[in-house]
Amino acid sequence: MKQSVAILGATGSIGQSTLKILTEHADDYQVYALTGQHRMAELVDLCVQFQPKVVGIPTGQFNQFKTIASEKKLSPLPEIVFDESGLVAIASHPDVDIVMAAIVGAAGLLPTLSAVKSGKRVLLANKEALVMSGDLMLSEAKKTGALLLPVDSEHNAIFQCLPESYFSHRHENKQPQLGVSQILLTASGGPFLNLDQTQLEHVTPAQACKHPNWSMGQKISVDSATLMNKGLELIEACHLFSISEHFVTVVIHPQSIIHSMVQYIDGSTLAQMGNPDMCTPIAHALAWPERISTSVQALNLFDVQKLDFYPPDHEKFPALNLAREAMRVGGTAPTILNASNEIAVQAFLDGRIKFTQITDLVEQMLLQVASHIADSIETVLQVDRQVRECAMQWVEKHGVAV
Ligand code: NAD
Ligand code: MG
Q1: Which residue from 19, 45, 314, 339 has the highest number of Cβ atoms inside 10 Å of its Cβ?
Q2: What pLDDT sits at residue 176?
């Protein structure tokens, strides 16, 4: 029987790659629901192609969706659900087997959590949701038996390099188990790896969004340029693999051929390699423990020839240490980091602050907002709102008006 898939964030980069794989494996998977926040014309096109039973959109987009759907003769019309509550309902619907969590940012938290609470197979791209909710999400997964599978290429690589039992019996004590001694989290270094500090002051959003190896949404592209993406991924790895932050080492690897590594106490280092294309980790998470084909070209090592590795430059890219510190502090500190970063990235994209002010703002929020125990999702959401307000005031004060 076909597995039924809901794609939260279908119009985005990960959403599109997921749909590409589903098209190639139409005998095994069917699309139950698609959601999108903007780009209604593209969403209608996807509905025409995939015929989902349900579509999730913001209330404010309803008229536009309806008009375009009638122009493009979308028939039958899918059921339309609205806003966050609609996404939460999709993620927990009994007819859904697999949820692709590919919304960007904190907006994905409640829908992703809803999928976890309903015991789904959850393909986790939306790293911000896990950074914010951490142990709360993992304990829900433990309770319901939800399978939380990493789509982020690094975490998927680590998952592939760990013994299977490591993941299925996650330990509570935040130490590496089963002979694992270290996780090596690779980072491309982003588009500004070789710029100096003064050049970084003047980079533009267009330059920041032009990643050398990956084609991604704007927010994660900027995060890759500041290395905050790697900071968020460090926190993501600690939660997913139940490991303390000092067991995770970040390695700059500009070719993005090795997607991360796991070291063992016997001196072994296991790496997962491949051409940089998100279809590989998505297909892996979709079919695990089986393997399904993708159109990604197999690696030709004679073409690759050379793999470089460097330590990160923490002076130039302070984001990594800010994230490490937030993980060390724990509680709501990662939520403060994430919320302030989301506001800062948007302010940078809007031309209101300089690139180097993104991490200035995050650092200030970590200093100004007290972190406390993340005892419930309500607490996390309340801190998220509070930090966004403070961060917007910071932008008003230190950024330019547009
Ligand atoms: P994107 O910007 O291309 O797509 C984001 C999707 O989320 C879109 O469908 C958009 O409509 C939807 N969305 C945006 N704001 C929303 C809101 N407020 N409510 C509901 N839906 C909303 O982003 P992306 O590059 O596909 O990344 C998605 C997630 O996957 C991010 O968390 C990112 O960090 C993670 N990720 C992406 C890649 C990649 O290669 N693109 C790799 C690893 C992890
Ligand atoms: Mg990644």
Answers
A1: 339
A2: 74
| Claim to verify: residue 182 and residue 245 sit in the same structural domain | yes
* Listed residues 150, 175, 197: the one ending a domain: 150
Q: Are residues 246 and 206 in the same domain?
A: yes
CATH of the domain at 357: 1.10.1740.10
> Is there a binding annotation on residue 217?
yes
Residues 289 and 199 both lie in one domain = yes
- In this prediction, residue 1 has a pLDDT band, given cuts at 50, 70 and 90, of very high
CB 216, CB 224: distance < 8 Å = yes
How many A from CA of 260 to the centre of ligand 2?
A: 10
* Share of residues in the chain with pLDDT > 90 (%): 94
Judge whether 290 is annotated as a binding position.
Answer: no
| Whether residues 179 and 285 fall in one domain | yes
Which residues form the domain of 87?
A: 3-150
Rg (C-alpha) for the chain, rounded Å, is 20
Among 150, 168, 200, which residue terminates a domain?
A: 150
| Residue 133 and residue 10 share a domain | yes
Q: How far apart are the C-alpha atoms of 229 and 155, rounded to whole Å?
A: 13
**Residue 31 in contact with residue 56, Cβ under 8 Å?**
no
- Note whether 180 and 264 are within 8 A (CB): yes
* Euclidean distance between CA atoms 24 and 29, whole angstroms: 10
Question: Within 6 Å (CB) of ligand 1, which residues are found?
Answer: 9-15, 36-38, 102-104, 107, 125-128, 152, 214, 216-217, 219-220, 278
Q: What is the pTM of this model?
A: 0.97
